[in-house]
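the two lines:
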Amino acid sequence: MSSGTATLRPPLVTGDKTISDVTNDICAPMARKPTALWWAAFGLSFTALIVGVAAVWYQIATGIGTWGLNKTVGWAFDITNFVFWVGIGHAGTLISAVLFLFRQKWRTAVNRSAEAMTLFAVMCAGIFPLIHMGRPWLAFWMMPYPNTRGPLWVNFKSPLLWDVFAISTYLAISAVFWYVGLLPDLATIRDRSEPGWRKRITSILCLGWNGSARTWLRYETVYLLLAGLATPLVFSVHTIVSMDFATAVIPGWHTTIFPPYFVAGAIFSGLAMVLTLMIIARKVMQLEDYITMTHIDRMCKLMMSMGCIVGLAYGTEFFTAFYSGNGYEQFVFKNRALGPFAWAYWTMVSCNVVIPQLLWSKKLRSTLPVVFVIVILVNVGMWFERFVIIVTSLHRDFLPSSWADYAPTWIEIATFVGSFGLFFTCFLIFCRIAPVIAIAEIKGAAHLKKRPSAESSSKEKAA
Amino acid sequence: MSDRVLLATFEHEDDLLAATDAVRRGGFEIVDAFTPYAVHGLERAMGLRPSRLTWVCFLCGMTGALGMLWFEHWTASIDWQLDVGGKPWNSLPSDVPVAFEAAVLLAGFGSVFALFAVSRLFPGKQPQIIDPRITDDRFVLVIDEANAAFDAAAVRSMLQEFHVLAVEERVTTPGGELQ
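prediction for all of em together
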């Protein structure tokens, strides 16, 4: 990049850094002892995780009759949480793969932690359908393996089975993408660590990386290939999740708008979660020079545009119901907006469509407390979106005599809290043991100072 | 490659790129370069051919897609014909999502493992670390001294033009590893 463009675009890394400063700044938090704030956050997350483990233990031992489900509302909290967590994961892949293909260099400051977020969110998501099976020790029945029952194969025509393949592929590819991205940085940690356990572990994990240009060329090729594979993958995953609903004949679910609507919603909620984590991480880990206000600003814009797409989908759904002339469809949508769950519906609309409109203002986008409140509300709103889609479509079905209400039991709430515990425990550990910013990528993208200042190079010569 | 090489250390990618270009134009053979990050344009300066790993990715992806399509067809319409809501046993559209996932899975893992194999990256490998700062902020160009006419002094003075930090001669082991 010539210096001419540098004046047009704000620098990716502020604070007049050299290449070596970047390595030092990003590796420093790993060598320091954890702060009191980290311990407090870890304690809280770990407690939540313990609560979740206890709840999962209890409901598996007792059976999922411990949930608030009934004959009419057969899917509710559990599937809401599943879709919520899968959606969170999608922004990580958007940032690491889609923005890579679009050559958005600013992604280098956030892609590592966004990918970690994807990994942990998909792990959290996977837990819910496993529990929902009731007998999770038979989960391997979802795999098509030769068995003594025929062999009776799995039903490849079922979207629920497509989901099994989509989510497990997504988890595997996200993990590989993340690990391949980590290789050069693990070598950096190896080379700067004193002999000891850290050096030994990173030597094994970096697979003997030595920075050869030939390896870099192949590495870049594979990274591009993985980005190219992950991009359609991420769209396929939430498309398939939406088909869990769209291929059913339930009014409110049986609609062709679901795949794009779900994908946009997923990326929207994921960006909100990335922003939540970034705003905290840059402060706690003193990475303000890397995750700059420009990054926050761009992610806010992306999030707002996704929010508008989601808003458009809400409107389109209503219009389709009205225009279809289908009485059942119309009833479901009237019931959503005015029925017993209207409070959930209007929470969703205000958090996802109305409040993000504040981000049109540059002043508000650059006021961190405001952005933080907005992203938290979007997280809440997107959870309610899945709750509204699932529960309001089910609780008043074709037969008024079977209409029912739904309220979660404390077991379901504890499981949800536990999934947050798992997510944040994993994320906090990740912040301690791995570089939260892709060191090698940001060095290549940021066009740092040409040469260290005169005094530092003279110091080097003297040494 | 002879058993003697010249290592030239640089501080900035632009210097490395310019020096690589000049050394190659000067008729010297470049063994390799070592950099902290992927320096774009270095492969052109070094005259490296584009990686063929894309083919591995393509073949693995095709294997995944076609293999899974065949497997879905075989399980649902040949081995145990499964009537689901009166749909045809051999309906192709419903086989597409899983076949796509299998393609992505195999293509992704295939290209990553091919990368590891071709670049000889494996756990427990003892790499030749020419300079520990290569993974921090140093760029090292390795030039072969094979040519009988190789004039170390001339190369040194040529490299000075590109703000070279240090020039060092090293001998490689019979296995070709740098010491």
